[in-house]
Specification:
four-stranded antiparallel sheet, 14 helices, alpha+beta, 26% strand, 42% helix
Length: 543
């Protein structure tokens, strides 16, 4: 009985993991093959098999001339049309139903219909998501550091952006997009601050090298210090302090103070100064707890209570890294690096990056004692040896948070416009990524196969419906683009052959056709093999 229950539990886990992957691919493959099927039937082509998946047939049903089936391997599908094999002899009376004997334009449209249906699905999905509402960051600023360009020009933490150069701003992504386009220009921002007063800020937009290899522009605009990120409420707690004695510990995350939900570190100190009695609700791993104590000195700071930012503390130490070999552990508090007191985690990252592997002097505190170690960062190669980075092997306990998301809903006409613009944007990204892949600017290691798609599908499905539908739209658009590549075996290869046939007004020789199919088949198998190899490699690396 126990073996049977264990087997059922295993099956349940498999279905839980594979379900989103099978659903995603099943829908997209069905949409694609349905395009070929409907147009073929419209032009009178006899369809012998409509299959979802490859390999042995699990379920099958025949209606008319067509056998509809569900096959074992859900990694594709096919529509088998009568007369699609050039080596097959066709009876004269049956040629009117044969695919290869149809006019060139009809064959071209049948081949194009599959990818076209994927494009239609993408457009429809983006339109649907836009109508339902797309989760987006509000146009609210995060922590603006003193001394930064943004601070000097008048931007302050928590400000709400209302417009840029007179154009209304609905979400933060619009700000980022506008900044990227405006390098070297001045922009006028209309802002509402915490006191609900409005102000205007004229800002010069600097330019920097675009580090995103999937974008066309080599340089993009930015305002130094402008961000939507804020420091969250994960705390560091000084040992034997008031907060420590009441039960608060390093790595705890504060949720509420006196019943008021707080989200940002910048709001915490001002709030605590106003209260005589403190009731702090916090989260420790998966458990919520509450502590109460008298705040005798209302003018006191968080430091006086024993609460400090958690970014100074180490959360994780990688095994077999310079940090672990130097003896650093989780919970250690970093004091200084290269004899400079640590003010932010960015300071640590900058020193590590600028070291180029040279030895760094790090002072840290463990318990009540301070220690000094000398650590040499090791180099990592990112994106196929194109970008060299350095690391110690530690992760900060600091918690950065975004503002709470809002839903951006559009009317029908706006949704249509959004659908086309978003589809165009992603088509450009797909095209650029393929070009950069060929040019060697993006490593072939970044290619993912069915395992990668399955992992992403699983995460997005269990995150929310929006994430899963967005993923479906993007993969559908990839299917549209990749299937139109002029590679024999793919739809794009057939479209190329039929285009040449239409121009020459004669069929391509059988020898040329068969040779091209063989070359295309080898290319596709090699490509899929590489993607699958990357999947296995990444799995083993993560394991």
């Amino acid at each position: 009985m126990e073996i049977f229950l264990s087997f059922l539990e295993f099956i349940q886990k498999v279905l839980f993991a594979l379900g989103p992957f099978v659903l995603l691919l099943g829908v997209l493959i069905f949409i694609h093959e349905l395009g070929h099927f409907l147009v073929a039937r419209y032009f009178g082509v006899k369809v012998e098999v409509f299959s979802l998946g490859f390999g042995p047939k699990i379920l099958k049903y025949k209606k008319g001339d067509t056998l509809y089936c569900l096959s074992l391997l859900p990694l594709g599908g096919y529509v088998k049309m009568f007369g699609s094999n050039p080596l097959e002899e066709i009876d004269e009376r049956e040629k009117q139903k044969a695919f290869l004997y149809k006019p060139v334009l009809q064959k071209w449209l049948i081949a194009f219909a599959g990818p076209f249906m994927n494009l239609i699905f993408t457009l429809f999905t983006f339109l649907l998501l836009s109508k339902i509402g797309i989760p987006s960051l509000p146009p609210q600023l995060g922590d603006i550091k003193k001394g930064s360009q943004a601070y000097q020009e008048g931007f302050r933490s928590g400000d709400k952006l209302l417009s840029v150069d007179g154009e209304k701003i609905s979400y933060y992504g619009e700000v980022v997009k506008r900044l990227k386009q405006a390098g070297g220009e001045n922009l006028i921002f209309k802002i509402r601050d915490k006191s609900e007063k409005t102000k205007k800020i004229s800002s010069f937009i600097q330019t920097k090298k675009n580090t995103n290899p999937l974008e066309v522009k080599k340089e993009v605009g930015f305002i130094e210090g402008l961000t939507a990120l804020s420091q969250g409420l994960r705390v560091g707690v000084i040992k034997n302090s008031l907060a420590y004695r009441r039960g608060l510990r390093t790595f705890d995350e504060i949720l509420k103070v006196n019943g008021t939900a707080l989200r940002y570190w910048r709001d915490l100190e001002n709030f605590i100064k106003k209260e005589k009695i403190l009731k702090i609700t916090f989260k420790r791993e998966f458990e919520k707890k509450t502590i109460r104590f008298l705040n005798r000195k209302q003018e006191s700071s968080l430091k006086a209570l024993g609460i400090e930012p958690s970014f100074l503390y180490i959360d994780k130490v990688g095994s077999k890294t310079p940090a672990s070999e130097a003896g650093l552990k989780r919970g250690d508090k970093l004091i200084s690096i290269q004899d400079q007191k640590i003010q932010s985690w960015d300071q640590v990252l900058k020193e590590v990056e600028n070291s180029s592997g040279s030895e760094l002097k790090i002072q840290y505190q463990r318990g009540e004692k301070q220690h000094t170690v000398f650590v040499s960062p090791i180099s990592l190669f990112v994106e196929g040896n194109i970008k060299k980075r350095y690391m110690l092997g530690i992760v900060s306990a600091g918690l950065n948070v975004w503002p709470e998301e809002i839903l951006i809903k559009r009317n029908f006409l706006e949704s249509i416009s959004y659908s086309f613009s978003e589809t165009k944007r992603w088509l450009v990204i797909i095209s650029v990524s393929l070009a950069r892949l060929v040019q060697g600017e993006i490593s072939f290691r970044t290619l993912g196969g069915p395992i990668t798609i399955g992992r992403i599908a699983h995460r997005s499905f269990h995150h929310n419906v929006f994430s899963f539908l967005s993923l479906m739209a993007l993969i559908s658009l990839n299917l549209f683009f990749l299937n139109l590549l002029p590679i024999p075996v793919l739809d794009g290869g057939y479209i190329l052959f039929f285009t040449i046939e239409g121009i020459l007004r004669r069929s391509i020789s059988l020898k040329t056709f068969v040779l091209a199919q063989q070359v295309g088949f080898v290319f596709i198998i090699s490509f899929m093999g590489l993607a699958f190899f990357n999947d296995i490699y990444n799995l083993l690396k993560a394991w």
